[in-house]
Amino acid sequence: MPWPASVNPGTGAIAIDSGFNIAITGYSDKRLEAAVGRILTRISRQTGTQFIGGKPALSIECHGAGENESYQLDVTTTGAKLSADAVTGALRGLETFVQLIVPGENGFEVPVIHIEDHPRFSWRGLMIDVSRHWMPVAVIERNLDAMAAVKMNVLHWPLTDDQGFRVESKLFPRLQQFGSDGDFYTQDEIRHVVAYAGDRGIRVVPEFDMPGHATSWVAGMPELASAPGPYKIERTWGIFEPTMDPTREETYKFLDAFIGEMAALFPDPFFHIGGDEVEDTQWKQSARIQGFAKEHGFKTSHDLQSYFNQRVEKIVKKHGKSMIGWDEVLAPGLASDTVIQSWRGQQSLADAARKGYRGILSFGYYLDHLKPAAFHYAIDPTGGENASRILGGEACMWAEYVSAETIDSRIWPRAAAIAERLWSPASVKDVDSMYNRLSWVSRVLDWVGVEHRANFYRMIDELAGGKPSEPVRVLASSVEALGIETRRDARKYTSLVPLNRFPDAARPESEQIRALEQCALKSPTAEDIHIALAEWRDNHALILPLAAGNSMIREILPISENLSTVGAIGLQALKYIQTGQTPPASWVAEQRRILNEIEKPKFEVVLAAVRPVRLLIEAAAHTSTAMKSRDVRSVTNVPVTRPQPF
Amino acid sequence: MPWPASVNPGTGAIAIDSGFNIAITGYSDKRLEAAVGRILTRISRQTGTQFIGGKPALSIECHGAGENESYQLDVTTTGAKLSADAVTGALRGLETFVQLIVPGENGFEVPVIHIEDHPRFSWRGLMIDVSRHWMPVAVIERNLDAMAAVKMNVLHWPLTDDQGFRVESKLFPRLQQFGSDGDFYTQDEIRHVVAYAGDRGIRVVPEFDMPGHATSWVAGMPELASAPGPYKIERTWGIFEPTMDPTREETYKFLDAFIGEMAALFPDPFFHIGGDEVEDTQWKQSARIQGFAKEHGFKTSHDLQSYFNQRVEKIVKKHGKSMIGWDEVLAPGLASDTVIQSWRGQQSLADAARKGYRGILSFGYYLDHLKPAAFHYAIDPTGGENASRILGGEACMWAEYVSAETIDSRIWPRAAAIAERLWSPASVKDVDSMYNRLSWVSRVLDWVGVEHRANFYRMIDELAGGKPSEPVRVLASSVEALGIETRRDARKYTSLVPLNRFPDAARPESEQIRALEQCALKSPTAEDIHIALAEWRDNHALILPLAAGNSMIREILPISENLSTVGAIGLQALKYIQTGQTPPASWVAEQRRILNEIEKPKFEVVLAAVRPVRLLIEAAAHTSTAMKSRDVRSVTNVPVTRPQPF
Q1: Tens-digit pLDDT profile for residues A604-624
Q2: Helix A249-265 vs helix A301-318: angle between axes, to the nearest 10 degrees?
Q3: For position A632, what pLDDT does the model report?
Q4: B629 contact A CB<8A
Q5: Nearest to A48 among B50, B499, B538 (CB)
Q6: Residue from the list B457, B638, B640 with its beta carbon closest to the beta carbon of A466
Q7: In 10 A of CB B256, how many CB atoms?
Q8: What's the rounded Cα separation, in Å, for the pair A55 and A321?
Q9: What confidence tier does A633 reach under pLDDT thresholds 50, 70, 90?
């Protein structure tokens, strides 16, 4: 995953054993050599095999450095060959090769296959907000590794927002000194991340949001604001008043110097200036700013923002970059090489394209809403005409409700579905197939080092205070965490509220529940279902002792009790199905009512276990032929189609 | 864990919230400051809390740098104070503080407590073999973090053995060039590890095994051997012939230069020369060496080794170090400040002490035998008289059957039981209490970053080829991996055989099985037991689909089938117990026979699930009073006594 442009499987395989080795036969450079070293380490770990050289089983032939991402991978029983025009293509092909490794008849092996592959879109991004909650360099590094594994190629890195100024300015050190709690990236760290990303064929596009979302700028430099300070960084979420003053020449002088400093730090040709959600209270309350607007004939605050954007765009261009902004920057007079990133929707993006602007879609790819992978997978960036102006899309991870500990499980594996949408041919869109491969790639990402799976176990142990926590895990696997839209109303969150409770440990999408749903549809009497239902029914009794003296467990007892109820209802439904009896209509109605009640969001999670049980009830209600014997063959354990695992 | 010398719990607690902070009020240095930073990061992660300063809830007062390990920790409802004579003591106290954090009535908190603590032994070591299988720096780092968490203070680091020469010599680069597959620590890496350990209050004692176990030395420098080469490094396990020539002055000239180079790299006052298991074939076959022996009046090869040792001891001393060697170095004429490390036994150590030598016990602490923690816990280093000469003990992790991926689960958590034996008062020896705390500390170590728990899940996913692997996890949790004594006879292992199979994923001791045993003894009709038995009975059907085309799953099917059998037998026994019926003697005899058969080691693991089921059969066989109702209260989920978690 993402599924390649063209795949032809064969028969046979090459072994991954201690004699396995990789040779570079064509063009080579440090980046390719380093990538080969990293891949060998990963394969060695994944297969438990120590490599001691030997005749190379995989040879890599590329023709030059470059960023062309296409590659060809040919695995035969006598060896594998990876060909690419450019090193970046070879990097993509190496990730494909690793995903091909499977346990076979004689240990690990790579099946015979021929792959020709190239991306559909050239911009396949992941945006990681580091202002709302601070993300140390290690978080960025492991997410870059994960991005590389699913062939994403742009890290969009917003470094300023109301809650934090996250980059060191040597020219204006007050920015990070007053704009963070000491949690910012030094310039050395920035250079390290840019190089780390570059090694993996990933570009880094920084964002400095202006003129709104600017509280952290003005905490140290109140003179930039449209109203007198003092200011301090925000601890809460929302849209805030502090806005840069677009009327003062000093603002642009400062931005010229600052953008110059940052442009030198980030080699990418694009430079993101945000431009979203400008709150115009300060502008409206200032007689001076209103006078300036009148003098220039600006009718609305948006006109004033457009003036600001056009001034900034000239500065950005002066420092050798093309500007990117969110939808709101679109206005008459905007430079034609500006790229529009759309959070508003495909229509907004299509409008921009019609006006000649290049665009990137983020609408529908907001990971912080914690929607199912299938939701994101269904969103396509192109809207018909002007398709060539659509560069691609970006998954966005806003950080109001994630910490360094939980962010991985909010990004992965769902972002891999977006990565596939952006890389693979548009015709690749079967949802079941996607989920099977997502389940596989989730584990690949674990082996790569991203912590979405490890953190789940760790956080549950922490919640349980280090006691054996299996029943909490059972409960957490039967719920799905809810996103920003639910959480912002659920309780008063600020950046100081710990993100260590059950809804933080729970995952956005339960792999187990999906498997049970599939099973309930295809084979409702399979052993898996019976086992799960009995486990749920009995689980509450096992959780109770953990709640003693532990408020974080106690608060989830109502959900746990509901899970027991759902398990019991499911077992009843199963009994009807197994005996071929049709349940009384009153019973069916009552269970539907109970399940509807139970399925309402509670404590920022939804009890996903309701879904397969609802299917069982409907199956029981509509069953006319008796199923006399239980089907003991499992189907939920074979969801991944082999031998093509990606 | 380890349990402190003196503990007085109180009532109440201090909160760990965003205002939590640590202040250094007395002596301070970079080491203490760095430790405080690390601890804050760990607490922040464990509790999901972002710290933004505030009135310090914990103040640290120590009087100077130094290595005194005692400390005092006083937690009251208004704050906590950690006092220590020296920085090292403060480091130990900080680890205690972190272990005190529990989820309470209002989030995470530290209960009121007064602790006075100091170690029983001054040498509490862990030896990590890096020759049989290569261990990258990251493995050493995370194990140092874990050692610090359980207050171990010596990393014993054997850097040479027949299978690998693991350190860079700048004077004699042929050593690592021909003595490794490129897998060795550079001198910069050595310095990094020594500093990393020192930051955590851990000394690093290197070992250079001589004159035996010397194949990797002579691979690059055959002139050191007692017979002409050429040699290459060993890929198999055992004791090999290549032995240094003790008769040539060139040998000592080389050792003088080499030891000088290494002595400068390792600041510790001790220097380990191995000296174990000298194979004398080369000596016996050399007329020249036999002539030399005769000339000097040596009667045995051991006399010749003693001569060698005494020459080496003078070199070691010349470079400012005291020598350590294994039992075999003990012989008349050995310098009195030599330290004897005993792998042979407490008697051997007592002999050495009687002769005036200081000693370290490793017999009984060999982790690679994969014995239960209780076995190691029962071994005490002191043998009565001359107790003052016993410095302490060392857990030894030999690496024939571990890789960088599996080593953590072979060391942890069992080494924590040894750490407690060496730190805590001799009177702390209750095994049940130890296991309860071991279960807790296993999770603490996970949070510290050691991978014994994460790797378990990861390896099982790898075995299952990335498919949902829950049934394999159930099976793996019901078995225990066997150690070197079983594995060396089970199949032909070399350093090139991957360590990626089921016995590598399985853990040496099953926490779940121990909990079920406890439960079977105290409350055989508890819900937990019924659930586990039913899960085992049904598990085989769920594993079967995973075995298709996967030899590594297929080979464990017989064990899986046995687990189903054990589950079914247990459920039968439970039925007898629940109904108060006494089973027929023939039934009991037959089940005992079946379980005895099933419990025999198979595929390098033992089916530990047999143990609780055997208890159930005995309970059924001897039950006279009927237990009419099932006891639904769980006992296995509350094994950890609170509020003292360590």
Answers
A1: 999 999 999 999 999 999 865
A2: 40
A3: 35
A4: no
A5: B499
A6: B640
A7: 17
A8: 46
A9: very low
Is B307 within 8 Å of B296 (Cβ atoms)?
yes
For tokens 């290569």, what's the residue? B134
Residues on chain B touching A458 (C-beta within 8 angstroms): 446-447
Rounded mean pLDDT for each run of 10 residues along chain B, 646 residues in total: 97 93 96 96 90 89 93 97 98 97 92 98 98 96 98 98 97 97 96 98 98 97 96 94 97 98 98 94 96 95 95 97 94 92 90 92 95 96 80 97 96 98 96 95 94 93 90 97 91 90 96 94 88 93 93 95 98 94 95 97 96 96 54 36 32
- Those of residues 78-107 in A touching chain B at CB distance below 8 A are 102-107
By Cβ distance, the residue of B133, B531, B552 closest to A103 is: B552
Which pair of structure tokens corresponds to residue B465?
A: 């080829």
Q: How near does any CA of chain A get to the CA of B468, in Å?
A: 6
Burial of A294 (0-12, 13-18, 19+ CB in 10 A): exposed
DSSP B223: G
Identify the pLDDT of residue B383: 64
Instruction: Tell me, yes or no, if B534 comes closer than 8 A to chain A by beta carbon.
Output: yes
pTM of the model: 0.90
Q: Do B17 and A404 touch (CB under 8 A)?
A: no
Quickly list H helices, A200-240. Answer: 215-220
Q: Is B443 on the interface with A (CB under 8 A)?
A: yes
Closest residue by Cα to residue B67 from B124, B16, B111, B23? B124
Give the span between the Cα atoms of A203 and A196, in whole angstroms. 10
Side-chain half-sphere CA neighbours of A505 within 13 A: 28
Cβ B495–A553 below 8 Å, yes or no? no
- Chain A CB contacts of B102 below 8 Å: 465-466, 550
Return the axis-axis angle of helices A87-100 and A30-47, rounded to nearest 10°.
10
The answer to whether A593 contacts chain B (CB < 8 Å) is no
CB burial of residue B628 (10 Å; 0-12, 13-18, 19+): exposed
